[in-house]
Design a protein that fits this description.
The complex is a heterodimer.
Chain A: H1 7-17, H2 30-42, H3 48-56, H4 60-68, E1 89-95, H5 101-111, E2 115-120, E3 135-139, H6 141-148, H7 163-169, E4 174-178, E5 182-184, H8 195-204, E6 239-248, H9 254-259, E7 272-274, E8 287-291, H10 292-295, H11 317-332, E9 335-345, H12 351-374, H13 384-398, H14 404-431
Parallel strand pairs in A: 1-2, 1-4, 2-3, 6-9
Antiparallel strand pairs in A: 4-8, 5-9, 6-8, 7-9
Chain B: E1 14-20, H1 27-34, E2 38-43, E3 58-62, H2 64-71, H3 87-92, E4 97-101, E5 105-107, H4 118-127, E6 162-171, H5 177-182, E7 195-197, E8 210-214, H6 215-218, H7 237-252, E9 255-265, H8 271-294, H9 304-319, H10 325-343, E10 356-357
Parallel strand pairs in B: 1-2, 1-4, 2-3, 6-9
Antiparallel strand pairs in B: 3-10, 4-8, 5-9, 6-8, 7-9
Helix pairs in contact in B: 9-10
Classes of the chains: A alpha/beta, B alpha/beta.
């Protein structure tokens, strides 16, 4: 014959049914409390409120059981609501042209709510023309020299690299940077794209570098993780870098554009995706956003071609800093996204002319890419600064023998970290 | 702009493999695109049922009795009462390429309203190289209207052969049961106009609903596992094949593309039924994924069969303690390769297994 239930178990049954109405459990004897907790677990009734009830009793056995079972209160929601606080963003523009009027007017609707840092290319003589109605700071050659010192430094802020000075002096969390020959693009529905908002969305939503989602960014509205995506990987990691794209004049190298002079990018691909861990990519500086707090020091202005020029075809500085950031993100567990937003890139320059200068950059990529693909950082490197220093040493050891440009790059990376530390501590001291 | 050469039909080099349990009415909609091709229909479930194939298609049909007859004791590796049985079709095919599609997938429309010829796009994907070693930010550089971006090393621009083309789905997305339960009304309406190579070293969830592959390059790796009747899980057949295939492709220097083409997925399966099937898989995949991420194949494994047999060994050694199912699965993987080699002896004329029913 089956044993009849005990009075205790009947009591616990009733308590379990009415758990949501109970506000205090501390009066219960230890063994009863424990039994109730275990039964609550088994019945699947452990909610945040009920967990707090048990924790509030302060009984050792309960607390140690909770810690052994690794039951945790989720303190922050998995997906933060995206509220762009204007004071968290700096838009950094490297001015390679004096007259920024049409550029700023075209971007007014998008830029006007944010603070801008405009850095004038030190090689550009004359005064910048900037329309009114914006909140901005301008930095010129003299400002750069007063921060960096006028003695020759291995960090050179000229040409496209002038914008890195803006990254250095900003104290905001997010930086968005767009070339001054780009204007807002239109999406496939004919609507103007707010590139800044999209970059911020990319940076504020998690990235998913450890497993590829075939429906791309699972945090976008109208989509999700697909079948077969491990649940433990669905919370994602912080996004450090957002790489946007370009309609019209795509960011091809000079040989490609010279070979296909009429080729223009007209395909709007409605996707953002996380570039998987350990996969390298060529990051174009034309249209990017990054989390300065996470990866700022890794955005190094270090790789300067001997004949670097004032057209993107004549540089590869962004490819270098982009791969530094990717290696460091992979190491520190952050993500890098690519895809939306698009900007419209205006016609500028002559690919054939640039081809003569950029050939050097194209050749050097053959060494640069395998280097970054095989770069491994040590366990001890836990900040972006540490990582950059380690990478600089590896560049010196493995690439310096190949070309003097690498020796300069290595020195510049070390110098940049020093500068970064000096400037950021100066800023935080003055803010205190 | 330079003229675009038309995509070859490959009608004598490609088989379309369709698993079905009901009927093949969906083929009517696909007729303009599928009619030139030979179909291999794998009938799951009750073999005494007659599957009606629309007039005018050239096909061969296999039911469970045929599978048992052809494979004998090795038939144990082919799932019963699950669409995983489709991989039998891969094994008996004699063609270079396979396209497989589910019987609830229809022709989708692109944003301009035009019908999408999914097969043509898969062929384009498979005939052009893949680029697994460096990510191109403008996606597939071999597509019309695009190219490799600045910074992409020239030495990597030849690419590698494409072994698999993984297509996507509009309307009912391929979600797992928990997601279906939470978002029963979500539909995929976003047409992403891109094809891209999945980088080397990265795993992905491969869906078998709209999939093409080069059978000569990777066929033996496309074993869809033990699912359905008598098995503890379901809806992980294509996932398993995808993880094995990706690891082997990475090892052999082959590429896998994902993205276009889209098909229109019309039927949402019952999420409660799905939950029962997937339940164990959801927990097991937490062990399975790290296993595949850490797998290393010895360089002596130079053929797909060798890689796959080695993989089976490692599954048995490392996943057996997750559940005894994996020991069974590892054995089935070995049986599959044995059966594959029997039906596809290298260098000789293919064995006759004919169930061919002409037009």
């Amino acid at each position: 014959m089956r044993k009849p239930p005990t009075l205790l178990s009947l009591t616990i049954d009733i308590a379990l049914l009415n758990l949501s109405h109970i506000s205090d459990l501390s009066f219960l004897p230890d063994h009863v409390l424990l039994e109730l907790f275990l039964r609550t677990l088994r019945a699947g009734k452990l909610t945040e409120k009920i967990l707090k009830l048990f924790v509030a009793t302060g009984k050792d056995e309960i607390l140690s059981l909770i810690s052994e079972l690794n039951i945790q209160l989720i303190l922050t929601p998995v997906l933060p609501t995206i509220n762009i606080r204007d004071d968290e963003v700096d838009i950094v523009i490297g001015a390679l042209h004096l007259d920024l009027t049409s550029f700023m007017e075209d971007w007014r609707a998008v830029f006007s709510r944010f603070h801008l840092i405009i850095v004038q290319d030190p090689d550009l003589k004359g005064d910048l023309k900037i329309p009114g109605g914006f909140s901005f700071d301008v930095y010129m050659k003299s400002d750069i020299e007063s921060v960096v010192g006028s003695s020759s430094s291995s960090v050179v802020f000229s040409g496209y690299s002038c914008r890195y000075f803006g990254y250095l002096v900003s104290h905001k969390k997010y930086i968005i940077s767009i070339d001054d020959d780009c204007i807002p693009a239109k999406d496939d529905k004919g609507e103007l794209i707010d590139a800044v908002a999209q970059h911020i969305t990319n940076l504020m939503t998690p990235a998913t570098p450890f497993f590829f989602n075939t429906l791309y960014d699972p945090f976008r509205k109208g989509t999700d993780f697909v079948r077969g995506y491990p649940f433990s990987l669905r919370s994602g990691v912080q996004c450090g870098l957002s790489c946007g794209l370009w309609l019209n004049l795509a960011d091809y190298d000079a040989p490609t554009q010279a070979l296909k002079p009429g080729q223009r990018n007209s395909r709007f691909v409605d996707a953002v995706l996380t570039v998987p861990a350990r996969a390298m990519l060529p990051v174009s500086g034309i249209n990017i956003g990054f989390d300065r707090e996470l990866v700022g020091p890794a955005m190094v202005p270090a790789f300067r071609l001997a004949k670097e020029g004032k057209f993107r075809w004549e540089t590869v500085e962004d490819i270098w800093s982009g791969m530094c950031v990717k290696v460091i993100c992979d190491h520190l567990g952050y993500g890098v996204k690519s895809g939306l937003p698009y900007v419209w890139r205006n016609e500028r320059g002559n690919a054939v002319e640039s081809l003569k200068k950029e050939w050097e950059g194209v050749k050097l990529m053959e060494e640069v890419v395998p280097f970054f693909q095989s770069m491994r950082l040590s366990q001890g490197a836990v900040t972006a600064e540490d990582c950059v220093i380690e990478m600089a040493a590896a560049v010196k050891e493995r690439l310096e023998p190949l070309d003097p440009v690498f020796a300069r790059a290595s020195e510049a990376m070390v110098e940049w970290v020093k500068l970064w530390k000096v400037v950021t501590s100066r800023l935080s001291n003055s803010a205190a | 702009m330079a003229g675009v050469s038309p995509t070859p039909l490959l009608k004598d080099e490609l088989d379309i493999v369709i698993p079905t349990i009901r009927n093949l009415d969906f083929l009517e909609m696909w007729r303009p695109f599928f009619q030139p091709y030979h179909l291999i229909i794998v009938q799951d479930g009750d073999p005494s049922k007659t599957i009606k194939v629309p007039e005018g298609f050239d096909y061969e049909l296999y039911n469970r009795n045929d599978i048992n007859r052809i494979l004998g004791p090795k038939a144990s590796c082919i799932s019963f009462k699950d669409s995983a049985c489709r991989c039998f079709g891969y094994m008996v095919s004699k063609k270079k390429y396979i396209y497989t599609i589910d019987d609830d997938c229809f022709v989708a429309k692109d944003p301009s309203g035009k019908d999408i010829n999914a097969l043509e796009q898969h062929i384009k994907n498979i005939l052009s190289p893949a680029t697994p070693y460096f990510f191109n930010t403008l996606y597939d550089p071999y597509r019309d209207g695009t190219d490799f971006v600045r910074g992409y090393p020239f030495s990597l621009r030849e690419g590698v052969p494409t072994a698999v083309s993984h297509g996507l789905w509009l309307n009912i997305p391929d979600y797992d049961a928990p997601t279906q339960l939470v978002k029963p009304r979500e539909r995929n309406t976003r047409y992403v106009d891109a094809v891209m190579t999945i980088p080397k070293g990265t795993l992905f969830p491969m869906c078998g609903m709209n999939l093409a592959f080069n059978r000569e390059l990777i066929g033996p790796a496309m074993y869809f596992g033990l699912m359905g009747d008598g098995q503890p899980i379901g809806r992980y057949d294509d996932m398993w094949a995808g993880w094995c295939t990706k690891v082997i492709c990475d090892h052999l220097g082959l590429g896998i593309k994902t993205g276009l083409p889209y098909i229109w997925h019309s039927k949402a399966s019952n999420p409660f039924v799905n939950l029962k099937k997937e339940y164990k898989g959801i927990y097991w995949q937490e062990e399975i994924i790290p296993f595949f991420q850490a797998v290393s194949l010895p360089k002596e494994c130079t053929t797909v069969q060798q890689c796959y047999t080695e993989l089976a060994k490692q599954v048995k050694a490392k996943l057996a303690n997750v559940d005894p199912y994996f020991t069974k699965l590892a054995d089935a993987m070995v049986t599959w390769i044995e059966a594959w080699d029997e039906l596809n002896p290298s260098g000789e004329a293919p064995a006759k297994t004919s169930n061919v029913k002409a037009k």
